[in-house]
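haha ok so turns out i had the wrong file open the whole time. this is the CORRECT one, sorry everyone. sequence first:
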Amino acid sequence: MINPKSHDSLFKWLITAFTTDFFKHYFPDIRIGQYTFIDKEFLSKYENLRESLKGDLFLVMEVEIDGHLREIVIQIEHQSEK
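then structure:
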């Protein structure tokens, strides 16, 4: 059995290591400036988010878009099996 945590960790690392390239590929019309990631464990204290955080790759970031700081969420549900 494949450990889904290691699979999620790889994708999280790829997105955080190549954030600018990620946005260029998936959101070519959005040009980002400075950005920071917000820790998922910080958000998990909110009861209404707990269930949605289970088992998903979930990144929250503050990012500069068109000169304005925005808070955005990247949620990916990828398959580790066929």
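The CA atoms of residues 58 and 75 lie 5 Å apart.
again sry for the mixup
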